[in-house]
Amino acid sequence: MKTKLDEQSLDWALTHICRYCDSDHFPRAFEFTAIRQNWKEVKDHILAINLETYTPRKPLIRFAPKLGGTHRIVHRLDPIDSLIYTAMAHEIQRSMGGSGDPQTARIAPSRVEPDSDGSFYRSARNAWQQHLARVESLAQKYKGGYILMADIHDFFCQIQPRRLAQLLVESRLTDEDHARVISHFLLALSPSSARGIPVGPSASSVLSEVVGASIDREVLKHAGDHTRWVDDLLLFFGTREAAHDGLRNLSNHLHTAHELIFSPEKTRIVSTGEFLANHHMGPPEETVAAGPAEERLGQIAGRWRPMALYYAWKIATPMEAVPMTLHVQMQSLSEFQIIGGAYLLHFNKAVNCNPPNLRDARRILRKAAAYRIRDLLPGVLDHFDQLMPAIRETGIYLKSVLNADDIRTHEAQLRRAWQNAQQGSSYINDWMCHAFSHPGFDQNHLPADYSSIISIRNQALIALRKQDVDWVRKHAAQLETFEPWDRRAIVYACSLLPPGERAKLLGAAQGHGEILERSVALYLQPSSDRAAASADVKPLAKGPDNYPSYGDKPATKAPDNYPSYGDKPEAKAPDHYPAYHADEAPDHLKLLKEIEELTLTLADQANRLRDQQAATADNKTALDQKDAEIKSLNDRLSAIEQIISRLSKPQSGQDT
After folding, report:
1. CA distance to 175, 260, 430, 546, per residue, from 170 (Å)
2. Which tens digits make up the pLDDT trace of 550-595?
3. Are the C-beta atoms of residues 91 and 64 closer than 8 Å to each other?
4. For residue 257, what is the enclosing H or E element?
5. Global pTM?
């Protein structure tokens, strides 16, 4: 009976989350940086868990605005649960053999195929292109026919874990015991409901494909030609009557077999001509305008390449922009100017529509954020209220491109944007705090106080940006009264405290018994103290089956004037206390940052010289000297990154 996780899948899960984040709907969590550093202890803890009896923590829940004005429920799992869930999905994915169900592979081109860098979707780009090609081919075949456009209503939230377990066994992807463990885990995440898988983690996309393949097999009985992308189906018929029969038969199957229904607003029968004219998603307009330039920059970006280039939000993508050194290199290319102009043109076109075309706007924002294209900034601030349903993409973009000069120049607009956002939900507040964690906001004291920040966690991360020692000291004194997400953020912000005071608090956090809090405390310790602390690992107060435990004393309820646990958001660590990623080593990051900043300074000086039309020999000499210095610094940076990469990879037989 399989009741524990596979070590290989757990290692892969950490790689995936460090690269792609644990949820597409929340900013990156600093906890995973701490977990990565303390991976041996955390991994041993998780591997010891008996999943048959394990109860995960209640996830954070937010209401994310949708483009149509409604909201969708999104989830963030506890970091330990996120690792478990991702590892479970990876185990199922390996059983799929990288191709899903062979019977339906042509209908839903394979997206689910792991790679060693932590992506669930090795062939995502080709899969989307194959999907588009199949749609166009079938549209030509049924040129005078009809297309049933069907969308499964609230797909992830309506999947039944018990039915999913049955399908896993029927598809021979796992045995009954393992399927029961997965079902138990999913049901425990939402004990008040017998349905739903988390919305946000990429792992849910893998499990949803198991249900999708089952639907494909049934569709083949009623319509020989169709295609599917996640929960969006296109069925092709020769006559309208046949299309209506297909809709009736498939609706009956969905409800009978899966208790799913089609969305009334998104399901319709249209002629092939109308579909091609009004509904077919061909290449984005900005890609048509600047395709070769996008392709060139994508090749340079490598692992930071935005998959939104091919399809927005159905594929997990890194949330980080390209490193600044790479950005400097890109700026000198003509392709960078080409795509900057194309993105600006089509972004303005999208936001100036009536109503605004937010689907296009958010896709362009995500791509512009990845490449740090600043051309869109004035338009983003001018249309901020209209972009509120795309607050995730707006927050990511602002964090990627803002600098201190921008914040001074656009202070009034940014202040108004913050004030207007306070009328929104916790989800909007999360992403605004993510954008406003930029240290440049200290000069204009935004946000002015903590009353407009909904959660203690975000308050802690803004306090860290402000270097507000008094706030940290006050809340650290009440640490036990807060819920886990908040408590870890306060511990994280304790890096601001004087050494003696900080050491005392971190020592208490390490002895607390909770594995994540201990990991964050260890992460903040000087490297010289870290090894000694790791060698003296204190046992947890209770066994791993009862994770998380806090000794014999349960955490007290927070005072009434503090937000409830359900309002806890996440935020990425401020720039002055950066998050480290899978290919970086914390002990070397300060040097890297200094070199990157110096490189940017020299590059700016060189650009100014070019702007002054370096016509004289003296100017030309100065320009050549600056370029030589930039090249030298880039060479040194590359060498350091190679060293860091080697240091960050565990050698055979050694711990991470």
Report:
1. 9, 19, 41, 32
2. 333 333 343 343 333 333 333 333 333 333 333 333 444 445 555 5
3. no
4. none
5. 0.79
